Amino acid sequence: MLPRKSIIPEEFSLPGLVSRMPRKPVFRDRVNKARFIAKNGSCNLAHKNIREQGRFLQDVFTTLVDLKWRFTLVIFTTTFVSSWLLFAMYWWLVAFAHGDLDPERQNVTHCVTDVKSFTSAFLFSIEVQVTIGFGGRMITEQCATAITVLILQNIVGLIINAVMLGCIFMKTAQSNRRAETLIFSRHAVIAVRNNRLCFMIRIGDLRKSMIIGATVRLQVVRKTTTPEGEVIPIHQIDVPTESAVASNSLFLLAPLIICHVIDKNSPLYDLSAMELQCSDLEVIVILEGVVETTGITTQARTSYISEEIQWGYRFVPIVTEEEGVYSVDYSKFGNTIKVVTPGCSARELDEKPSILIQTLQKSELSHQNSLRKRNSMRRNNSMRKGAGSTGGLRRNNSSLTTPKVQFFTPTDGGQTLNAVT
């Protein structure tokens, strides 16, 4: 039995209408992933399954500098105590071989005076290596072996002092300590500047000592797939900045806004405001320079993920001139204000310049309307104040009216009452 056909044609049925309706692009929720660079600049990377551990021992000094402070102090103390104990054993053996420990040979000249036990040998070892002369124990010219041990301990002690003290100095003068005073804005912004869509951040230096030869580099890190099917989990793409910054002429005297023009060569060229929130890109900012006081190269890093990029915002000005001095208000360092910005991508703006023109016209009209409203509110307030002051004057004038005064004037026929106001 054939199925009964519907009276309504198939193209006008509900499934047919739904299939012909234009569908909006569906964006998947952004998958939470670990960021490559943390906000404080540390690299979020773990090294595992390193088989060639001996390579770290080939560069002992750098390994000691990279260790944490607690491990460095433990190694520092252990090294000195071990060297004192080792040479204390040598001094005890020298005294034992020469017979200085024999109580029957007290009249014989000793190699080292007053070394009668291992404890006294340990104390003499500390005096020799730390160059503390208490005067109670001293070496004599009777033993050539004792003189050799003395020279050897002095050389070893100097080497240990140089390495350990140099390690501690480098740890206290590390360049990342200077980077703590180089700050970045909490958020990055995307807005229109000079009729171009731009990605902007703000950087600043809290110290008065400047960073010489400061340069800023921007990189976009994202997961990409090549046409051959190769998956690159960390694909680093260089992002050019303005010509003034790219030419190494960054003068970081006051907080600066670093601007990247989103053009055809930018990895942000095809991203709109909605697509940016669903993307998994990460913008890394690297600030490098030489510390003016120490001459050590320092580097400060941070990153911005899609949730930390504000579309349609602009940084507020924080540098003002007060009594002939430029003042920087760091309390507003990361503050932004909302501005009219097209929500489409930079590619669409290049293909349809009318979008930007219409957006700017709407912004100008809204600005004019806000000014008119503000002026009208000011007029109304002034008129209300004027009306209030006029009413008050009238009330004051009414209260100050001259009272009527009555007096009598004598006449021939009697007294007549005259009233004078």
UniProtKB/TrEMBL annotation:
**Transmembrane regions listed in the UniProt entry:** 71-93, 146-169
Domain Potassium channel inwardly rectifying transmembrane intervals: 37-174
Q: What is this protein called?
A: Potassium inwardly rectifying channel subfamily J member 8
Question: Would you tell me the Gene Ontology cellular component terms?
Answer: monoatomic ion channel complex; plasma membrane
- Coiled coil (residue ranges): none
Q: Where is the composition biased (Polar residues)?
A: 395-421
What reaction is this protein's catalytic activity?
A: K(+)(in) = K(+)(out)
Which residue positions does UniProt flag as site: Role in the control of polyamine-mediated channel gating and in the blocking by intracellular magnesium?
A: N161
State the membrane topology: Multi-pass membrane protein
**May I ask which residue range the UniProt record assigns to the signal sequence?**
none
The yes or no answer to whether the keyword Phosphoprotein is present is: yes
Q: Which example biological process does GO assign this protein?
A: potassium ion import across plasma membrane
Any one GO MF annotation of this record: ATP-activated inward rectifier potassium channel activity
Q: Which organism is it from?
A: Monopterus albus (Swamp eel)
Q: Taxonomically, what lineage is the organism?
A: Eukaryota, Metazoa, Chordata, Craniata, Vertebrata
Q: Which family does it belong to?
A: Belongs to the inward rectifier-type potassium channel (TC 1.A.2.1) family.
| Pfam families in the record | IRK, IRK_C
